[in-house]
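Question: Hello, beginner here. Any chance you could explain the protein record under this note? Any guidance would be welcome.
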Amino acid sequence: MAIEQQQRQFLPNLCSTHSVLVVVVIAQLLALVTTLTAALYSDFSFERLAVSSLFIQWVALTSAALLCGLRPTINKLPLGWASLVVVMVVVIDAFCFSLMAGQVLDWMASEVLMDRRVWVREALISAAIAAIIGGVVMRYFFVQEQLRQKDEAELQSRIQALQSRIRPHFLFNSMNIIASLISVDPEAAEQAVEDLARLFRASLGETGSMVTLEQELSLVHRYIRIEQLRMGDRLRVEWDIRVDPEKVTIPQLTLQPLVENALYHGIQPLAAGGLLKIAVWQEDGRVRILVSNPKPPGNSDHQGNRMALENIRLRLAALHGSGASVEVTPATEHYDVLLTYPLKKGD
């Protein structure tokens, strides 16, 4: 699934344990503030605090429950309408429960404690307070969503730049190799053309698309096969795949840029070449992918290498949040890159 096609999460999941705790704490703070404000005009009363807490907590939790049920629908609406719906749900809930509270108090006292018009006025005041608080909260969510969309747009452009980036030297070298093979080994030349076409198709494909690990490894195989035509025995590859690649997904063009950097910055500068290691395994419900290459003496990180790693880090973070990581270990003789991200339920 492309990143831009993922469902917009304007309204957070208010049914989660963390969200419920936040709602309860904020509601209790609001009850305390209203009670302390009333204490400016009369003595502080724990009874008033208890009643305010009960009322505000009930309105907050029932509103959260309603919004949790309506969340899939609300997140499909435009931002303005989504904000209005959320505020209206909170306002209607506060108004209805305020009227209900008056009825319950009258019933418990077995007498009419307050004129019905007063109860309606109190309910309208409660609804107005709920509208103000709801509007402030929705304004916060609105700004957060605008910032998220801005960050996502910037991420999309960087991902597209990464996917469209094929080094000119690789293209020219590949074409020269194909031209030299046509008369000597037509089948190898045809295979190289097919591999190159597949790489171009992937680089120009849908931004952020998810593929199986098998598809991504196939792309890496094609890239390595082209480079081996040029580097010959200087390029040696060791594979260690300990997962079912058909059942694991990964953003397209995640491994290929790492392998390209490993060859370009690690193996190509060495006269004797070197060994490229690619390992994939599962540990603690997480996928771990290691790309290791020899490190030439005195070699420093290349700017292109850092750009590719940063883009991959952003892509994984956009999909998995803090559960994903990209760790670089530049040892004396080897340069290791370890990708880690959680397995999805379907993987």
